[in-house]
Amino acid sequence: MQLDPTDLKILALLQADGRISNQDLAEKVFLSASSCLRRVRMLEESGVISHYRAVLDPNVIGLEVDAFVQVTMRRDVEHWHENFTAAILSWPEVVGTYIITGDANYLLRVRARNLKHYSSFVLERLYKTTGVLDIRSNIVLQMLKDSNDIAAELLLDGQ
Question: 0.90 exceeded by the pTM?
Answer without folding.
Answer: no
